[in-house]
Amino acid sequence: MGQNLTVNTGYAATETNPAARYLQGGTSGLLTTFATFPLYKTVFRQQLHSMLVREAVKQLYGEGFRKLYRGVAPPLLKQTFQGALLFGVQDTLQRRASHLVAGRLPRPLLQAAAGVGTGVVEALVFTPFERVQNVLQNGRNDHRFPTQWSVLVRLSAEPLARGFYRALLPIMARNALGSGIYFGLKNPVRDALDQQGLSPTASSFTSGAVNSLVISLPLYPLSVLVANMQAGVGEEETRGGVRACARRLWAARERSVALLYRGGSLVILRSCVTWGITTAIYDRLERGSST
């Protein structure tokens, strides 16, 4: 902690090969998606058919391994790109900011600030993807928009604020806060666990999982708000801004925090597993590139 910033952050490696963080982030996103896709598919079957976990697992098991990874290509491409953007942009912003502050900021704070900027970039790039996904997942849209192409055509006809970039502000807030917390806590938590005798992989996995829990619990209501704002298309479904939609959501959940978090347990568990694996893979690749 008291060492020089350039020693702690490993800038010697990133300065000579800044593209390495994009490659490592993309690789970690790809491998994590492949490893956790069965869990994602289990949660989706629950959401789609309102079944218990054991029923969803039994159904997937009965369909066989060949069908287990059916549909993996779109999330695989998205998460690979998202991982590359997340870790690559954060590293780029961190390196540039380090020259401006010249060691006046503690390393975790510098990483957190770069994470906030990364979250903003991530929101600008991926909000249209999340918008299309939420429209497609809304069962009430099945007849109006039977295909992804029909959704794209309709959203293209809408103004950006009601079309592809609906709910941009809450997404930006969620991503900026989440990325800032993640990058600010990732290395300190991992290093503290290393000092307790855990293996590097176990320390990285636990750091990612714990940080995801810290992020997901307070920010989950923002994801619920985003889903409700983005699920509909048209004047009726997209009326009002963030405040009006938040009031309607709060009233619809009977002003109950418990109802607001309904369905959040599996989503948060999935997030912890996903980010634990992502962090472990990324840190492993980072260590390998510096040796």
Structural write-up:
This protein is mainly α. Helices cover 78% and strands 0% of the residues. It has 13 helices and no strands. α7 packs across α9 and α10 packs across α13. The N terminus is likely disordered.
Key features of this structure:
78% helix; 13 helices; disordered N terminus; 291 residues; mainly alpha; 0% strand
Topology:
Blueprint: H1 5-9, H2 11-16, H3 19-49, H4 53-63, H5 65-68, H6 73-101, H7 107-137, H8 148-157, H9 168-195, H10 200-230, H11 242-252, H12 257-260, H13 264-290
Helix pairs in contact: 3-4, 3-6, 3-13, 6-7, 7-9, 9-10, 10-13
Residue share in β-strands: under 5%
Low-confidence stretches: 1-16
- Measured distance between first and last alpha carbons: 21 Å
Largest sheet: none
Order of helices and strands: HHHHHHHHHHHHH
Q: Roughly what percent helix?
A: over 70%
**Strand-pairing-aware structural class:** mainly alpha
Using only CA atoms, what is the Rg? 20 Å
Strand segment count = 0
Overall mean confidence score, pLDDT: 84
Q: What best-fitting shape do the alpha-carbon axes yield?
A: globular
